Amino acid sequence: MIHSLFLINSSGDIFLEKHWKSVVSRSVCDYFFEAQERATEAENVPPVIPTPHHYLLSVYRHKIFFVAVIQTEVPPLFVIEFLHRVVDTFQDYFGVCSEPVIKDNVVVVYEVLEEMLDNGFPLATESNILKELIKPPTILRTVVNTITGSTNVGDQLPTGQLSVVPWRRTGVKYTNNEAYFDVIEEIDAIIDKSGSTITAEIQGVIDACVKLTGMPDLTLSFMNPRLLDDVSFHPCVRFKRWESERILSFIPPDGNFRLLSYHVSAQNLVAIPVYVKHSISFRDSSSLGRFEITVGPKQTMGKTIEGVIVTSQMPKGVLNMSLTPSQGTHTFDPVTKMLSWDVGKINPQKLPSLKGTMSLQAGASKPDENPTINLQFKIQQLAISGLKVNRLDMYGEKYKPFKGIKYMTKAGKFQVRT
Amino acid sequence: MLESNKDSAKLDAMKRIVGMIAKGKNASELFPAVVKNVASKNIEIKKLVYVYLVRYAEEQQDLALLSISTFQRALKDPNQLIRASALRVLSSIRVPIIVPIMMLAIKEASADLSPYVRKNAAHAIQKLYSLDPEQKEMLIEVIEKLLKDKSTLVAGSVVMAFEEVCPDRIDLIHKNYRKLCNLLVDVEEWGQVVIIHMLTRYARTQFVSPWKEDDGLEDNEKNFYESDDEQKEKTDHKKKPYTMDPDHRLLIRNTKPLLQSRNAAVVMAVAQLYWHISPKSEVGIISKSLVRLLRSNREVQYIVLQNIATMSIQRKGMFEPYLKSFYVRSTDPTMIKTLKLEILTNLANEANISTLLREFQTYVKSQDKQFAAATIQTIGRCATNISEVTDTCLNGLVCLLSNRDEIVVAESVVVIKKLLQMQPVQHGEIIKHMAKLLDSITVPVARASILWLIGENCERVPKIAPDVLRKMAKSFTSEDDLVKLQILNLGAKLYLTNSKQTKLLTQYILNLGKYDQNYDIRDRTRFIRQLIVPNEKSGALSKYAKKIFLAQKPAPLLESPFKDRDHFQLGTLSHTLNTKATGYLELSNWPEVAPDPSVRNVEVIELAKEWTPAGKAKKENSAKKFYSESEEEEDSSDSSSDSESESESASGEQEEEGDSSEDSSEDTSSEHRSDSESASEVGDKRTAKKNSKSKGKSYSEDGEKENEKSKTSDSSSTDSSSEEESSSDSESVSESESEPESRKVAKENEKKKTKQDRNPLTKDVSLLDLDDFNPVSTPVALPTPALSPSLIADLEGLNLSTCSSVISVSTPVFVPVKTHVLLHRMSGRGLAAHYFFPRQPCIFGDKMVSVQITLNNTTDQKIENIHIGEKKLPMGMQMHVFNPIESLEPEGSITVSMGIDFCDSTQTASFQLCTKDDCFSVNIQPPVGELLLPVAMSEKDFKKEQGMLTGMNETSTVIIAAPQNFTPSVILQKVVNVANVGVVPSGQDNIHRFAAKTVHSGSLMLVTVELKEGSTAQLIINTERTVIGSVLLRELKPVLSQG
């Protein structure tokens, strides 16, 4: 399956390579560089590139290309999904996944990769198990290791690998038993010029942080499970229980994990919590354009909207912008033509606005499309779909855990066309 | 530093070396120094040395050999992690000399106790195969063995190995098909992907197409694109009632939950499975999941969108509800945008086209010009596909002609040209408009298109055309080659239609073309000149010049670039690239006639479950199977039954005997595996010495079984006694393969077994076992007729042979119709009641005998509220009453069933049958024969059991009767008439054996009729319940001796 893996940074240097079968020369990456050049933007590099003898499947994350070399037919999603899993693991191990971090921890990276893949076939991808095999580096451990000469490598086979609950290790112990669940919903929407919604959907996830002793068996039930249109589960969730009773029943992995992601379909009406008033105009003759946007709350169910950030990719013709915000700060990058305005909280009494002029390239014709506005925001303590967790019960253990549930609504891909 | 004594220094050195490897620097000259450390005690050093070795061993083969002995030692390490990693590294060292060593190691590891090691063995198979393909045959053997492995850990890896080494050996899958289907949910996600892909191919070769049944449905869906393949398929298959193979259904059903997986690859794999093998009407469910994947990373989106594009061509309906999910966002990368556009086009129909066109209008204005151009093409395609909007589209496109962006205009021109070509309607205005554009447009393709269009329609725009030609003649030299060619064409066409005005112009152009730098143009010039300018030499051709140039040209077809992709399996690399990737395996067409489905009949249970429509047991099972610790028991009990039936059916086929005994033992997990295996594998490839050693071990371990029960092995610490049971089961199976040296073990087992037999119902596990074995004997309520007679026979046959140890209830051989009077109509004042024993396991309780009561109303009035009143039952006896009957019409009759636990005694159950007005005391006294449930077992087991029920437990008598009464059929008929017993197949003609168990306690009741010389026979009954035994004997005797 996966022959080799190359890590390539944005400047086109291969800074790590790993081979699982016989060595593939790094010259194979030349094909990749070629494609990269053609694509001009990193985002546009095709994920699958055929070369005469190999196929290059790549993933672009954190400004690093992860290029897997394969030789024979294989489901491409298999490889891509695995590469993403690799990145996730790195992130889990080192906190961030960036070139310097990987270079610093090259040995751990190598050990982890060795465990994750055998002969190109995934071996252990559960981060729980990997962490038992190879302990993630922490400052404390580095110090201890240098003094005592002990190692990062676990010397025992993680029991999870063999047990029926492969995602949970045995013998977990905590003094404070806690289980936190975050219900996070993201609104994906396209709003057209006049402010009407073209498409809106809600994508939600339930992220959990479970620190419980022993082998707890949890059930989580919702007040209104019918809302969930399409769900995908962590492997720990018992599917049949969900099918029959709409209850999430599971033995949780230890630590942080994503329990569930769901989809509330476009068919349901989605409440859009913000609106954007905009007037952007370019004039044909003059080299100045007017720019004004106002953001305001709408259907927020009494909650405040926080963390509002407005970004917009201005047309190429825009040279500079002189704007004054009524609150927050704004920046405009004349090279990438990216305008970003960090609004912060929206105060319904005094709506934040950004006004000013744009200076256009002299002589250039007026751009025929106004820029789209991308919006980010957060609303605490609200799940916009109305989903509510009814109760959480624990079986199998005697102690009483501390339980907590948090709701949050965020903007996903929220676009306003102007 | 590597020479240093200190581990920390060595570690530091190794870390640096690994760093070098990672950067791609050559570190091979350090090989000798590194190899020395392979035996290091420090695990981290060891690991890093492994990393190094794997990287460089190929280059330094001789030196690498030095390390081999270390691995060989490590392969025997008690720690499974070390064994596994040793095997991994050993197999990763690509040195041809060690192939035999690797082979040996793989073989050994494939029989390892730890599933983790076995998993690694499966990986090693692929490595060895790529190193030395000549080992193929041997490796296939190992694969075959590992395929039978029950561990979910191993399944994925071994199927991967199978795909790599011998994907064509589909016959290896047959026996494991159902197991794989059932395990699928529990396999790790990567394994799932591989298994699903393999099973898709398998299904395409083994089942007939489920597609023809819903042809009608499909027709509606293919409006614009008719998919040739399916068309063909349709005509190929004759219409006949189609029933889906239950195995086919099993696969489809078991993969469904995986659509909910978090792993995109798994979801895609299931989607393609549904697409390729499920009935058309069921494919719909995948769309939701696929749309969900679109939220994921860009790369995943890319692949998924490609697949959706292909699907949406053939079946628009599937994704239509999700139309809006494919709307483009300005932040999407271009490739995603184009793919979404593609899908939107495919989904366009009369209903949604207006919304789509509005959406497209936004796209056209996009800053991403490449995308805008693609949108225009899309509009063109929509226009051709949906005739209602062609004019709207055309108008829109014409508007775009005044766009400021050149690329947009050019693209519009090209699309308009195509559209106009398709529509021979008058569009003079548009052409005129475009002619004007010639002044401003500079993109060659667009200019060429306009020129072509004018040339083609020169008769419709007689005034403009010569003018255009004049302009072009002026700028001819500075035009692009593409444009020049079109100018020549235009000239030629005009010359033919309007030679008066354009003769000179054309000649001028032809002259220019004659000396052009491009040979194509010179060529064309020469050709045109010869053709159109009449001269002496020009032959007959010039007469037809007009016909040649102004022939009706067929319109180009605007179609999706994904049109031709459907012959690749979805979700494959080949599909993504639209070329055949190395190692791509074609998905075969459905077979005309399904190959023999019986090849998969290893686990009869599954088949039978398939047939019971309610599938109650099945549901429960799979529900539980979806992991959780408490269910491990269940699983193992399952596996035990599996293994049994597997080996049993194999024992029918002589040649597989060895094999099956092997796998039956292998199936049971943990320690016992090796024991039973070594016991059964006498004379195997292993060395005699080792064998005897492990055999000895197995004995001792068996002796210690009781102890072990409490301190089970670490890997299966959670197992309870069910584990024991399953292991003992399989052992006794291998036993019955008649291996004298393991008699002792058999004895052991037997004891345990009978212990279980005595009260098999007290344990949940064994209960489940019974259930598993006997879907046929499920309550009457389930319509068993779904089983074809032959199947029943099949099942029965199998059941009879499977019952090596677990007593499994079989169907009653015979159900007597004899009814007993419960209440006479005279004494019941018109209410009559009869009862009889349907000989079915009671649905109300396991220990109850089911009784059916038929109530008749012989009066001419309604009898109301019939119910059971006071019960006078002897100690311990229980009764499950029927629900009160509200009313019984005159002359009406009703049959109700109830259950009575007679506690294995023939005591009478007295109770009151009450109506609204009266109460009648009635009682039921069961004939002893009805207190039994038939049991299926083999002759061998029968004898074994009989051997243990001697002495006190045996009663016998001699029967004297006429010889004609001793024909087998008569005996059989008589015996089963009296008692509800199961027939045990007998090897001897003169001995007839019947087996049953008592309903309440589950004790065995073994009946033997041995024909003696003359007209005598001996009737022997062995049972623990001596009282019942003797009663039965008394009842049987007169019946048998009667004429």
Automatic annotation (TrEMBL), chain A:
GO cellular component: clathrin adaptor complex; cytoplasmic vesicle membrane; Golgi apparatus
InterPro entries hit by this protein: Adaptor_comp_med_subunit, AP2_Mu_C_sf, AP_mu_sigma_su, Clathrin_mu, Clathrin_mu_CS, Longin-like_dom_sf, MHD
SUPFAM superfamilies, sorted: Second domain of Mu2 adaptin subunit (ap50) of ap2 adaptor (SSF49447), SNARE-like (SSF64356)
Subcellular location: Cytoplasmic vesicle membrane; Golgi apparatus
Domain MHD: 176-417
UniProt xrefs under Pfam families: Adap_comp_sub, Clat_adaptor_s
Keywords: Cytoplasmic vesicle, Golgi apparatus, Membrane, Protein transport, Transport
Lipid bilayer topology: Peripheral membrane protein
Domain of life, source organism: Eukaryota
Keyword Transport: yes
Record-level GO BP terms: intracellular protein transport; vesicle-mediated transport
Record keyword Zinc-finger present: no
Family membership: Belongs to the adaptor complexes medium subunit family.
Annotated protein name in UniProt: AP-3 complex subunit mu-2 isoform X1
Naturally occurring in which organism (per UniProt): Neomonachus schauinslandi (Hawaiian monk seal)
